[in-house]
């Protein structure tokens, strides 16, 4: 080191450690006790403690202790703590307390260049509001505001990007914006939320930092209005922007102005004007409230009454919550003798009617399910040829305003089917009407039309279920589930059957109050008495039965035996059961499919010469005419020829000739004997 041109001797750092038994000329120099204020004793203590100062955990709020030799330590504090022992916390500033417009302005006296890191803790429940603006005399070169709960960052009035995670959940979030050269980054806690390429900014002494809003409330409004919430430990680079200074000295910006900013982070009393309805009890939370709702109510403000928990429906029905009310859903069985149900709007229906949905089940191939009419407008849902057909005619009476759609597949199969009839896109001038059966796209039928809605149904139309109003048209035989027009039920139950009247404004009501209904869905009694014969088991398939036959029987009613030989079809023979019927093996003497033909032994008989064939068992005999004889009458029957021998005369029979020798005859073939 040089002072006044003279080179000073080099002094190493002061010794840190222990000495003992230091003698000078046999005098003990150290350790030695000296007066307290003695200069020679400075920074010397008795003993040789090598205890680490960090062993006592001096750093509070989870600050990290860094040991520095034996004597001292430093604390690395977590934000928002500060001070030697991290004992001090930056003081939180409350903006928008009691919904006042509040903001604070800081001025910088530092040259930041083009690298800037701004960070702060924020806590809010508002999804929008202005957080921070950095501005010089000509430009607001950094803007931060909340939109839909997420932080928006804009640099140089131009490059903008949005954080991915919402911060408006009522918890503290550390928000960090880094502008480095041509890049801007946003972090929430340690997680990156996005980045954008920017033109470098130039922050200069005298630039202003607006926190929570701008003095001009209209300018603030364009960023979602004034911020409502809390801010703590705001920093730009290493400088603090303190609303309320802490005791620990830190490098800070100057607070120029603070309007309606309040110390601390005290919540507004959200329960001051009880927001909970229906006798719900309000509990205040930070800038929010919850309602403890009495039973039967729900919703954030207990605004929904759970009507169904009051069991308002008759026991043949199921209660379904409905906006501001409830509906009693049930199925109804229609038979030829059932009444047709008649409905009308209660005159208070506001919504536009653009859809109809219903569930049904039938085996009828033709019937009217729903029919609605007002003047020349009508709407029908019917079965034709086992297919579902919907027809709509509304508005002026031109043919082009008629809609007719038919299901692609048959529906009269005894199964439940759900049908929806609706416009595809209300925003189009000529919306397409779509019928979807069982939600299947394949059964989707469309039609182009000028008919936009079914609003005539709410304007005094008569709506009938189960048949036409007149006695023409085939009445429905089957079941109907809930029928809804734009979500409004055509109720099978009368209000007088319910324990509570339905409270909702918009309703359809049943008009014919003395109609008798058969609730639930039951088919005709097709199995009692059982039509199945031979102990076949009857299965009810809804308005249709099926017989499950024992193995010996078959046919619709188990009336046919499976054994083709059951009826002994082979008259004279043995029967064999085959897949394609039976086969007879006939006894001798019989033929034919069923051995019914007795074999005619006289067919092609050999009886000749007019001999008559006489049938016998497996054989025949020939009855010969007089002039013939033999087995087949093949022989002529000759008279006796008389022969005269030398000694006496004799006779040969049956054509036999006299032989030259006396007493013998020449016989014809077939004959023998002496004569
Ligand atoms: C004692 O130590 C402190 C801290 O290291 C130092 O500032 C001070 O000058 C020392 N005193 C003497 C007399 O050296
Ligand atoms: C204001 O800031 C912008 C952006 O950093 C910079 O381009 C402009 O020169 C600054 N104006 C003044 C007057 O400092
Ligand atoms: C109507 O019938 C269907 C099909 O059997 C059934 O799922 C539904 O629960 C019934 N609805 C009511 C209200 O009983
Ligand atoms: C409805 O039609 C409008 C106008 O053509 C179109 O922009 C929109 O995407 C359609 N919406 C649907 C769900 O098809
Ligand atoms: C309902 O009652 C009215 C009058 O009480 C009667 O005129 C009408 O025929 C009845 N309808 C049925 C379906 O019983
Ligand atoms: C008769 O034949 C049919 C067809 O091969 C078969 O289904 C049936 O079981 C048979 N009946 C008996 C009694 O073997
Ligand atoms: C018919 O069946 C019986 C008993 O199996 C047998 O004795 C008889 O020979 C059969 N007859 C013919 C024509 O096959
Ligand atoms: C008729 O005679 C011929 C020749 O002897 C014989 O083959 C045939 O079986 C006979 N016919 C009858 C039906 O007896
Ligand atoms: C019987 O006599 C006639 C006449 O002489 C002859 O043609 C015939 O062959 C004789 N018959 C026999 C069996 O000898
Ligand atoms: C009944 C019959 O046919 N009789 C004849 C037998 O033979 C003689 C001679 O050939 C005939 O005269 C018969 O008429």
TrEMBL record:
The keyword Transmembrane helix does not apply. Residues 93-265, 330-521 form the Laminin G domain. The keyword Repeat applies. InterPro entries: ConA-like_dom_sf, EGF, EGF-like_Ca-bd_dom, EGF-type_Asp/Asn_hydroxyl_site, Laminin_G. It comes from the Eukaryota. It holds the Pfam family EGF. Residues 399-418 are annotated as: Disordered. SUPFAM superfamilies: Concanavalin A-like lectins/glucanases, EGF/Laminin. Disulfide bonds join 77-86, 293-302, 549-558, 565-575, 586-595, 624-633. Residues 50-87, 267-303, 523-559, 561-596, 598-634 form the EGF-like domain. GO terms for molecular function: calcium ion binding. Keywords: Disulfide bond, EGF-like domain, Glycoprotein, Repeat, Signal. Residues 402-413 have a biased composition (Low complexity). This is Crumbs cell polarity complex component 1. The lineage of its organism: Eukaryota, Metazoa, Chordata, Craniata, Vertebrata.
């Amino acid at each position: 080191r040089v002072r006044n041109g003279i080179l000073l001797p080099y002094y190493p750092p002061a010794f840190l450690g222990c000495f003992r038994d230091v003698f000078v000329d046999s005098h003990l120099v150290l350790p030695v006790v000296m007066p307290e204020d003695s200069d020679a004793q400075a920074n010397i203590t008795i003993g040789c403690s090598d205890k680490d100062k960090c062993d006592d955990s001096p750093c509070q709020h989870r600050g990290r202790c860094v040991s520095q030799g034996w004597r001292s330590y430093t604390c690395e504090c977590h934000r928002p703590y500060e001070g030697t022992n991290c004992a001090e916390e930056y003081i939180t500033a409350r903006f928008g307390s009691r919904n006042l417009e509040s903001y604070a302005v800081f001025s910088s006296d530092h040259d930041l260049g083009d690298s800037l890191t701004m960070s702060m803790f924020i806590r809010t429940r508002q999804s929008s509001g202005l957080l921070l603006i950095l501005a010089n005399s000509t430009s607001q070169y950094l803007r931060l505001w909340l939109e839909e709960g997420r932080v928006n960052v804009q640099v140089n009035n131009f490059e903008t990007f949005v954080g991915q995670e919402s911060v408006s959940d009522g918890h503290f979030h550390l928000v960090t914006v880094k502008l480095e050269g041509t890049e801007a980054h946003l972090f929430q806690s340690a997680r990156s939320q996005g980045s954008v390429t920017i033109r470098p900014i130039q922050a200069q002494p005298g630039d202003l930092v607006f926190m929570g809003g701008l003095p001009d409330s209209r300018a603030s409004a364009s960023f979602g209005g004034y911020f409502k919430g809390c801010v703590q430990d705001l920093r730009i680079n290493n400088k603090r922007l303190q609303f309320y200074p802490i005791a620990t000295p830190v490098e800070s910006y100057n607070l120029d102005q603070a309007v309606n900013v309040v110390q601390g982070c005290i919540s507004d009393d959200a329960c001051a004007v009880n927001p909970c309805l229906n006798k719900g009890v309000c509990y205040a939370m930070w800038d929010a409230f919850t309602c403890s709702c009495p039973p039967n109510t729900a919703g954030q403000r207990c605004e929904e009454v759970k009507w169904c928990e009051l069991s308002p429906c008759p026991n043949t029905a199921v209660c379904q919550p409905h906006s501001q009310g409830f509906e009693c859903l049930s199925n109804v069985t229609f038979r030829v003798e059932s009444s047709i149900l008649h409905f009308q709007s209660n005159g208070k229906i506001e919504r536009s009617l653009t859809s109809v949905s219903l569930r049904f089940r039938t085996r009828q191939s033709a019937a009217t399910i729903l029919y609605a009419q007002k003047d020349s407008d009508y709407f029908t849902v019917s079965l034709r040829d086992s297919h579902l057909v919907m027809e709509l005619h509304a508005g002026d009476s031109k043919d082009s305003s008629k809609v007719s759609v038919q299901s692609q597949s048959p529906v009269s199969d005894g199964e439940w089917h759900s049908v929806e009839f609706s416009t595809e896109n209300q925003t189009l001038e000529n919306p397409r009407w779509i019928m979807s059966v069982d939600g299947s796209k394949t059964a989707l039928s469309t039609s182009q039309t000028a008919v936009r809605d079914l609003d005539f149904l709410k304007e005094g139309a008569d709506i009938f279920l189960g048949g036409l109003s007149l006695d023409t048209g085939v009445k429905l035989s089957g079941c109907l589930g809930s029928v809804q027009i734009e979500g409004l039920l055509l109720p099978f139950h009368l209000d007088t059957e319910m324990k509570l009247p339905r409270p909702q404004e918009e309703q359809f009501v049943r008009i014919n109050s003395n109609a008798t209904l058969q609730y639930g869905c039951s088919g005709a009694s097709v199995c009692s008495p059982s039509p199945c014969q031979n102990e076949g088991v009857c299965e009810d398939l809804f308005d249709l039965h099926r017989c499950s036959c024992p193995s010996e029987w078959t046919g619709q009613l188990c009336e046919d035996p499976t054994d083709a030989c059951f009826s002994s079809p082979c008259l004279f023979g043995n029967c064999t059961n085959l897949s394609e019927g039976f086969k007879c093996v006939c006894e001798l003497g019989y033929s034919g499919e069923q051995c019914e033909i007795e074999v005619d032994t006289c067919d092609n008989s050999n009886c000749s010469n007019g001999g008559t064939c006489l049938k016998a068992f497996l054989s025949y005999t020939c009855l010969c005419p007089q002039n013939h004889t033999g087995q087949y009458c093949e022989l002529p029957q000759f008279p006796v020829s008389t022969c005269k021998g030398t000694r006496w005369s004799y006779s040969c029979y049956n054509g036999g000739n006299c032989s030259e020798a006396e007493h013998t005859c020449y016989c014809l073939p077939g004959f023998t004997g002496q004569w």
